[in-house]
Amino acid sequence: MNNLLDHILHLILSLLPATEEAARTSILSTRWRYLWTLLPSIDLDCTRSPKPFTSFIKNEFKEFVYWVLLNKTVDLESFRLSCVNHYNLPTVERWIHSAVMRKVKRMDLSFCPRVNDEVIKLPYSLVKCDSLEALKLFLYKRSLNLPTVTGFIALRVLELKSVRLLDGDSVQQFLNSCPLLEELSLINCFSYSIVDLCISCPNLKTLRIHNQKMDDDDSDSDDDDDEEEEEEEEDYDEFCKIRGLCERLKISCPKLAFLEYVGQPAYEVICENLDTLKKSTICPDAMAQKGRSFKSFGDSICQLLAGVSHVESLSLNHYFIRAINAARDLNGNFPASLGNLKTLEISTTIDKYAMDVVIRILRFCANLESFYLIIVKEIISWDKWELDEVLACHLKRVEFLEFNGEKRKLDMARFLLGHGRELVFSWRDKVKYHKKSTKIMKEVLQFDKASSTVKLNTLLKD
Q1: Under a CB-based contact definition with an 8 Å cutoff, are residues 42 and 80 in contact?
Q2: Mean pLDDT of 6-12
Q3: Which of 80, 274, 277, 396 could form a disulfide with 370, with the two C-beta atoms 3.0–4.6 Å apart?
Q4: Would you say 449 and 417 are in contact if contact means Cβ atoms under 8 Å apart?
Q5: Three-class secondary structure of residue 100 per DSSP
Q6: DSSP one-letter string for 184-236
Q7: How confident is residue 4, by pLDDT bands cut at 50, 70 and 90?
Q8: pLDDT confidence of 364, banded at 50, 70, 90?
Q9: Calpha distance 418→64 (Å, rounded)
Q10: Residue 289: pLDDT band by 50, 70, 90 thresholds?
Q11: What is the rounded distance in angstroms from the CA atom of residue 296 to the CA atom of residue 291?
């Protein structure tokens, strides 16, 4: 292997999952000793260290980070750092500054102060970095003081995850300071004070807003922080009950092409200047209706849908269906038409109301070409599903998720194949997939098909 060219060896090293592993290759030979220091990507994660994270290992990791960043002759394509709350903010800021000095293009940072109410401020060198194109910040529910000065002149991708936002004005000023921003993700960001929030970006093409309860692995790693974590969970639960990101959200992005809204919707959503929007995903979750009346919840969802009613592709879930049903007066709140819609995907449980709502939605889609239905669970059987003219007209592909051989679904499969529709049976569990897929295929292959080109597949989902 020592006879290989340097760029091939660099490629081999770049395939290793962590910088620590690349560094270990330095013991192979004299030629390998410093090869890893020339890699353009650095990935440093203290959570990969042995447990427990002792003071010795903490100091060892700190020295390793400084050592890795010491080489300033190679510009960085990417820099990832995850250190939770094991190091104070000045130390983390020095590491960030060192990466900036190496003209980093993509940065992924996961850290937080040990003191819960300490506000994080981005280093000035990071704000003024003219090489940075993508920035991801995961701050473990800590407050972030967004810079309002002009900066991030090359930033195109921004993701804020688990961040407490202090006020709406600073958010908008910050976005105004990122003139080239094309992709913005607000993942489980929240505020206790923001009532009105406006997202207005002239060049934004992709916007993702997720308002969901944090996963357990998003919490701090130290055992002695248990009490603090419990207090934060109570705070986050309260946020879920009240407003999440904000009470009133306005989206005004003239170049937006994709909008994804997941979790708890704002009480009021205003969409303006979204003429270029082509694709949207609206997926509220189980927490979305908590602390709100059914009608308020449904009206918010209808309002959001009305703002994207001109899209060509739309994805919805079961809680969206429940929200539409909760709105009661569909004709009064639902958009007058989904006339541009060509592709519709709905993932839903079949219950007392779901199929009626699905069919009512389809009646608004005069030009629909493809309808993808993922049936998560069947609570009751239904009799008139296959006889509905709207469904028979638009349906192209149906996916049965976690299929267990239910008779009504088999009856539907027979009907769909007889009308030339593509049929997919899928599972998330590998064992169930291997156990059931062959049996299902043998049974369904005996059904009559409208033509030999009709597709019938089984699928193991990620």
Answers
A1: yes
A2: 63
A3: 396
A4: yes
A5: helix
A6: EEEES-B-SS-SEEEEE-TT--EEEEEE-PPPGGGS---GGGHHHHHHHHHHH
A7: low
A8: confident
A9: 64
A10: low
A11: 10
- Amino acid at the residue 225: D
- pLDDT one-digit tens code per residue, 41-78: 888 888 877 666 777 688 888 988 888 888 777 888 99
CA dihedral angle for residue 80, residue 86, residue 92, residue 96, rounded to 10 degrees: 0
Residue 380 carries which DSSP code?
A: S
The helix/strand/coil state of 387 is: coil
What is each CA distance from 454 to 194, 382, 396, 438, in whole angstroms?
52, 25, 10, 18
The pLDDT assigned to 14 comes to 66
Residue 273 zone, left/alpha/beta (φ > 0; ψ -120 to 50; rest): left
Q: How far is CA 379 from CA 190, 208, 278, 355, 394, in A?
A: 35, 32, 34, 12, 24
Say which amino acid occupies 52.
P
Residue 138 dihedral angles phi and psi, to the nearest 5°:
-120, 110
- Pair 48, 57: CB distance under 8 Å: no
**Distance, CA of 400 to CA of 39 (rounded, Å):** 46
Instruction: Report yes or no: 214 and 188 within 8 Å, Cβ to Cβ.
Output: yes
Judged by DSSP in three states, 170 sits in helix
Token pair belonging to 64: 């390793």
Q: Are 91 and 62 in contact (CB under 8 A)?
A: yes
Residue 206 makes CB contacts below 8 A (sequence gap 6+) with 182, 183, 184, 256, 257, 258
Eight-class DSSP state of 50: P
The pLDDT tens digits of the residues spanning 380-433 come to 655 555 445 665 666 677 888 877 777 777 877 887 888 788 888 888 888 988
Q: What are phi and psi of 136, to 5 degrees?
A: -120, 130
Tokens of 134: 């993508």
- For residue 184, what are the β-bridge partners? 158, 207
Q: What is the rounded distance in angstroms from the CA atom of residue 274 to the CA atom of residue 270?
A: 11
